[in-house]
Amino acid sequence: MSQFQRISTEQAHTLLQQSHCRLVDIRDPASFAQGHAPGAFPLNQESLGRFLAEVSFDTPVLVMCYHGHSSQGAAQYLVGQGYEQVYSVDGGFADWGLRFEVERS
After folding, report:
1. Is position 65 annotated as part of the catalytic site?
2. pLDDT tens digit string along 80-101?
3. Residue limits of the Rhodanese domain (predicted)?
């Protein structure tokens, strides 16, 4: 995959339950602490190095932001870093929070 793909929150939820993939949340730390999808990795400038070191390039990565717009740029960045399967979650956390379980830090 040379480009990321866009998926719905329903598709993201299914992928997370059916396969070994990583969900990253690129929202600001305060928003992340108030609520995030279970198991989400808070991806930001400070944590990027750790993520790149821990997550292999063949692991599918789902990128979530507030509404599904900023995640597209972050998803393309991860493709550029070498990740083979990257998905931007349309609707972002705003939609996820209406449909699925939310964890708080």
Report:
1. yes
2. 999 999 999 999 999 999 999 9
3. 17-102
Task: Give me the phi and psi of 60, to 5 degrees please.
Answer: -65, 135
- SS3 label, residue 26: coil
Q: What's the predicted TM-score (pTM) here?
A: 0.95
The single residue of 61, 62, 65, 74 carrying the catalytic annotation is: 65
Instruction: Answer whether 61's CB lies under 8 Å from 24's CB.
Output: yes
pLDDT band at 2 (very low <50, low <70, confident <90, very high): confident
Cα 14 to its chain centre, rounded Å, is: 14
Residue 1 has pLDDT above 70, yes or no: no
Q: Give residues with Cβ within 8 angstroms of 91, minimum separation 6.
A: 8, 9, 67, 68
